[in-house]
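I hope you will forgive my troubling you with a question about protein structure. The full record is reproduced below for your convenience:

——
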Amino acid sequence: MNTKHLIRALAALAACGLLTLAPSAGAHEGHDHGKPADAAAAPKTDAAHDAMMAEMMKNAQPGPDHAVLAEMTGTWKAKLKSWFAPGPPTESEGTMVNSMILGGRVLEGKFSGSFMGQPMKGVSMMGYDNSKKEYWSLWADDMSTGTMWQLGGPAKDKVIAMKGSMQNPDGSTGECYSKTKMVDKNTHVYTMTTMMAGKEVPLMEITYTRQ
């Protein structure tokens, strides 16, 4: 390739944005003394864009509602009561280990114990969406291939009330309601109910005691 063709090829690449042609060392002599070489390439923003970015940064920061979740970090002894048949509840025990992850934004739980006479392991995640002003939670375990999602809050008097859906044994989906009450720094109680024939009935009660 001769010099003329090379110059044309470089110019074409530069026009397509695939090549930046840097000026020579003396190209700015006599012009814009002291001005940074990349000043012209700095991204331009406006007030609306800056306000949007500031709001995004604000919403990304953990706040008081995340601090409520942080109160549940630690290792807890879990005592479960479940009502899935007429009569008295089935009782079992387990251990829940909670930790705050993602810079204090999400409470992650790992459960190990038994449920309805069978060994069970489960995982949970719970967070607070600053933009939507609501808590969210997710639960999954090795006794099902489904998940349970819930939304609700914010907390009132150390109680987080949520509503969501769960997968029934027959594969159908049912509504469920839960409350997490922080009794004190060493105890919190989780209750879950559902609606049957227009009446709210209990499904589960878990009392967590700090170990």
